[in-house]
Structure formats: C-alpha cells, structure tokens
Write a structure and sequence with these properties.
The complex is a heterodimer of chains A (357) and B (299). Chain A is mainly α. Chain A has 16 helices and four strands. In chain A, α10 crosses α12, α13 crosses α14 and α13 packs parallel to α15. In chain B, a hairpin with a 2-residue loop joins β1 and β2.
Chain lengths: 357, 299
C-alpha cells in the first residue's frame, strides 16, 4: 500500500505524460467512483437524502464557482443568485411544458445570459469593485424573487418543482434523483479536470496571475474573463436547478439567499482555490462541520448542564464559516486540498522520507 | 394627484439624517481604504460589535451613559488595532482578492460570535440615549431626534477627520496610502499607521453602533448596515471623506423617497433595491465615485 512509487521507473516522456503516472491513483479514482455508484444501495434513504445528495450537489456548486474564483481569479459574492436564476427559470420552463433536459439547459442559459450581463462590470472593474457589484446582484435577485409574483410566485408562496424526466423516464425515487445529481457532478468534474490542460484553462490562469501581463502576451483578458463568467454561470444555473429538482423539491427565495452565497464561498476557500479535489473536501467539510458542532455543543450542554439558548446554537454555522475562512486564508491559503497533497506526498515514499530530499 | 409637500419634506429631512448616519458607518471603510488600500468588508460587524459593547457597559456593568460612550470608544480602538495586528498584517503582500475575503470572513465570524457571547435571548434591546424629545415638529414635518442627533454627529466627525488628515499623523497616513514602500524608506512606521487607521475606524464604529442601536435596537441585524455603508463609500469615492458624507446624504434621501412613494405599490423592500442599484450604477458609470481618485494602473 505505502511506498507506491516503488518499482515505478519512467523511462520515456510518454510515461511521465500519462494521466496517472502512479497506478495507485488510477485505482483510487476507480474505487471512489464505485463507492459513489454503489453507495445508495448500502445506506438508508435518510442518509442518502440528508448527507450524500447535498454533498454531491454542493460539491458541483463549489466546482462551478471554483472555475471563476480559482482559475480565473474573479471574486463572486453572489453565486447563490446565479443558482437561483437557473432554478427559477428551469422550474418555470417545465411548468410551461418544456421537457426536463431542455428546461435544465434553458436554466443554465438564462443564468449565463444574466450572469454575463452583470459580468460586464468585470470588463470595467476588478477586485473590490467586482466583489461589491456581485454582492449587489445578490440583493437585486433576492428582491426580484420576493417582489415579482410572476417569477417568485408571490411573497409567501413556494413553487413546487415538477417531476423531472430524463429521456422519457420519470425520476421519482431517491436513488434516481441521486444518480441525476451524480451524473451532473461527473460532467462538471470532468470538465474542470480537463480545462486546465486546454488553451482556455491556461489563458484563464494567465489572467488570474496578472491580467495586464496576460494581455501583453496576447491573451485577451476581457474576453477570457467573460468566458469564465459565462461558463461558471451556466454550470451554476444548472446546479441550482438540480438542487431544486433533486433536493428541495420546491423553490423559495430563502434557498438562494446571501447566506448560501457565503456558504459556497467558504466551501471554495476552505477546500482550496483552483483545486478540483478541494471543492469536494470543502463542500463536505462545510456541510458536515456545523451539524457536528451543533450536536457536540448541545450534547455538552446536556452533559454538564449549562444552558445554551437556541439563538446561540443558531449562530454556530456563521462562527464556523467565518472562522474557517479566516483561518485557512491566514495559515493555509490553498485549503484542504493542499493539506491532502502534503499528506499524500509524505506517504508516497513512506517510510523512506529522506529520498525526497 | 397633488403632492403633499410637507410629507415630501419630512421624507427628505429624515432620509438625509439617516443617510448621514450611513456615512458614519461608511467612514470606517473610507478611513481604512485611505490609509492602506484595503477594502474593509467587516465594517458592518464592527458597528454591531460597537453596539454590543455599549450595551454590555450600559446594562450589564450599569455605568452611566456619559462614561459608557468614551469607554466603548477606547475598547473598540484597541479591538480594531488588534484585528490589524492579528489578521491583516499577516496578509500584507497577498493578492487583493485574498484580503477582501479575509475581511468578509471576519465580518461573518463577528456576526456569529458577538451575538452568541452577549446573548440577549433573542431580544434586541434599545440603547438608552436620553434625548429631550422623541421627535420634533417643524410645520407639519415630524423629525426624528435620534436621526437628527446622528446626522449632527456624523457631520461633526467628518469635519474632525478632514482636519485630522492635516495633522502630523494624518499626513503620515496619507503618505503611507500613497506609496507604502516610499513611506517606509523615509522612516515612517507603515504598520503603526495602518493599525491606527483600523483603530480609528473601530472608534467610529462604536459611535455608529451606539447611534444605530438607539434607533433599531442591538442585535445581529446591525451588521446589515454593511451594504448601505459600502454603497455610500462607493458612490462618494472610496478615498474621499467629503464624498462619503455627500453620498450618504444623497442615498438617504433617495431611499427614503423611494420607500415613501413606491413601497405601497411594489410591496416593500424598495430601500434595498435603491441601495443595490446605486452600487451597480456607480460601478458601471463611474467606478471611482463622485470624489474618489482615479487610479492609473501600471503593468
């Protein structure tokens, strides 16, 4: 198991250029994939619906945001608004009779058009101004959802999602919904893994490092910033729709509020900017940590008999998100992905650690 | 439809006073931006912290109000310096996006931790600033004295800060904001200057927290002032104190008029709409605001 580099000697460039230079990595990917595919049969519906399904969906959302923040270096504080646009437009499209596949794509496309429209501010401004204009977009979208009855369905109403149907087969079971989310997650993951190797990905990373320098090298930084906004918004829109169809079963403005934007931001930062694996780690961590801490605090309060009011408990997620964002930015800016990478590198040659130096 | 001019006047005056109180919150953002070029997205939570400190001193310690305000200003001053020392100084030289996210993380952390520490059991007590009257009438206009007091204090503080930037320490901090490396090379302590700006921003937050707490009560919603403060700071120009006060004035009037006339038609919430549109329009049309300095970037 350990010393995985043993007996692996690359003698040609073709071998070092392989997708998986170490066979162990390839088998790890296969194993993870098998676990993800077989998991719904091994666990109860409760666990599937309340842990695994949200993890898969939020990982997809974090991946989509990571394309914008990690690869292209453009900050976005209103990502939940993008997801809301996708979710609402696909739900409305399906209610008007569009097939599910078309509604999903339409949701993504609407999110893309509106996202790019606001992303045009990215043509003029960057850094702080971009951050604040995306924040303003979040508030604008929130306002429209709660105040325009034609879109949000009135102030107190919830819009039920129609039953999704893929290629004519209606998806009604928990497992089916899980596979739908997993499939979309796989598409985004494969895109994100491969985009780094393409010209587009390299251009995005050049823009992230220094947009002026990228322009000097002949990379049109405006164009690539817009592309990043467009692709990321499309993925975000579809993910928002998937979230509504598979997890919530309805759409309400609260599902896509500013708190959710902060939550996704925390996932990306904690997981690691620009890391595919990190998005999965970050989403899992941010989803599970508040639950865990909630249970711990209430458990401790019962065991040692000190009163903890409901309002304190309700503040725990905020404390955790803020604290984790700060701690990771200060001490490990590359996030959980970097921590995993350090551990992996240590065990690659364990117990012969001296051979790395 | 004939317009009720007294009603409009009332909306304008109260809106202007509320807007001046937004400028008070925005001053914290402007001070820090002016001194270090860092956008302080934790300002809303700082104001909330200020409110909670005042509340703790007034209710829990039972001190009289004339002692509470200066004491909370001192406490917040060291709190702001501490934030700079612990968090911001480590981030020097990092990309701007990281620093913005750090201040946002701080905002979220404070928003969670401060109400949890000083838990009021879900209530939001009002800070008792004893004013001679709740409201005064000019003609048919009803003017809220709390807002009036806030407006007066905001203008006073702005005049104070305009003069502050002409004193020796103020000149030092302008030099630091202009070019930290050059300032450093002629023997100015850059760290101290930036720490001072955080301290001052926190002092302003204490005042703003006390004033806003006396109007809407102290709870976590005080930190929602961040968006309005950001709108004011952007509209006025991030490095302009005069701009902050004028922008606050304008935003306050605009949102109060919008709320007074449109809320009944669209069903509430127009204030947020005005604020968000002001931010977006300013950034689209004139990103450096009304009085801000337009920076030319070098490659």
């Amino acid at each position: 198991m350990f010393y995985r580099q043993a007996a692996i000697r690359h003698t040609s460039y073709d071998q070092t250029k392989k997708l998986y230079p170490i066979p162990f990595d390839k088998w790890l990917v296969v194993a993870v994939l098998l676990v993800a595919l077989l998991a719904p049969f091994a666990m109860s519906g409760l666990y599937l619906n309340s842990y695994l399904l949200p993890w898969v969906i939020w990982s997809t959302a974090a991946l989509s945001l990571n394309l914008l923040m990690g690869y292209a270096g453009q900050i976005h504080l209103g990502y939940a608004a993008v997801m809301a646009i996708g979710a609402y437009s696909s739900v409305h499209a399906m209610r008007l009779g569009a097939p599910f596949e078309f509604a999903l794509i339409l949701g993504g496309a609407t999110a893309m058009i509106i996202g790019v429209g606001f992303g045009f501010t990215a043509l003029r401004v960057k850094g702080l101004y971009l951050a604040i204009s995306t924040l303003a977009v979040q508030y604008l979208v929130d306002w429209v959802l709660t105040h325009v009855p034609a879109i949000g369905g009135g102030t107190q109403a919830t819009l039920q999602t129609p039953t999704p149907a893929l290629l004519g087969f209606e998806i009604t079971t928990d497992i089916g919904r899980y596979y739908l989310a997993l499939g979309w997650c796989a598409v985004v993951t494969i895109f994100m893994l491969n985009v780094k190797r393409t010209g587009l990905g390299r251009a995005l990373i050049a823009v992230r490092e220094k947009d002026y320098a990228a322009s000097v090298l002949g990379v049109n930084s405006y164009y690539y910033k817009l592309i990043a906004f467009a692709v990321s918004s499309f993925f975000g829109g579809v993910t928002g729709a998937i979230l509504a169809f598979t997890f919530f079963g309805a759409v309400t403005p609260e599902q896509y509020s500013i708190d959710i934007s902060i939550q996704i931001l925390a996932m990306v930062v904690v997981g690691g900017l620009g890391s595919v694996l990190g998005s999965f780690f970050g989403a899992g961590f941010i989803l599970l940590a508040p639950l865990f801490l909630n249970n711990m605090v209430t458990g401790l309060a019962e065991a040692y008999d000190f009163g903890v009011s409901r309002s304190v408990i309700s503040h725990i997620p905020l404390i955790l998100y803020g604290g984790l964002i700060m701690l990771f930015l200060l001490f490990e800016p590359l996030g959980l992905a970097k921590i995993y990478d350090n551990i992996r590198k240590y065990f690659l040659v364990w117990p012969f650690g001296f051979s790395r130096r | 439809m004939d317009l009720d001019w007294w009603y409009i006047g009332e909306l304008v005056v109260n809106g202007a006073n509320a807007g001046l109180m937004y400028s008070l919150v925005a001053l914290g953002i402007v001070l820090i931006y002016k001194a270090s070029g860092v956008a302080n997205l934790a300002q809303g939570a700082l104001v909330m912290t200020g409110g909670y400190v005042v509340l703790a001193l007034a209710y829990d310690a039972g001190l009289p109000m004339w002692l509470v305000i200066p004491l909370s200003m001192v406490i917040l001053f060291f709190f702001g310096m501490g934030i700079e020392r612990i968090a911001l100084r480590r981030m020097a030289g990092q990309p701007l996006i990281m620093i913005i996210m750090l201040t946002l993380g701080l905002e979220i952390l404070l928003r969670g931790i401060v109400p949890a520490v000083w838990d009021r059991g879900g209530e939001s007590p009002i800070i008792p600033l004893t004013l001679p009257a709740d409201s005064i009438f000019i003609g048919d206009m009803l003017i809220n004295t709390s807002y009036l007091l806030g407006g007066v204090i905001a203008i006073f503080l702005v005049i104070l800060f305009v003069y502050f930037f002409r004193t020796r320490i103020g000149v030092v901090s302008r030099a630091v904001s202009d070019d930290p490396v050059a300032a450093w090379s002629v023997g100015i302590s850059v760290e101290r200057s930036i720490a001072l700006s955080w301290g001052l921003a926190a002092v302003v937050s204490a005042i703003a927290g006390a004033l806003w707490g006396s109007i809407q009560g102290v709870d976590w919603t005080l930190s929602l002032l961040l968006l309005k403060a950001v709108a004011v700071a952007i509209l006025g120009g991030l490095d302009s104190i005069i701009g902050a006060i004028l922008a606050g004035f304008m935003l306050g009037i605009a949102e109060n008029l919008a709320a007074g006339f449109l809320d009944d038609i669209v069903g509430g919430g127009t204030k947020e709409l005005v604020v968000a549109s002001v931010i977006l329009l300013t950034i689209l049309i004139r990103p450096h605001g009304m009085f801000g300095r337009e920076d030319i970037e070098r490659i």
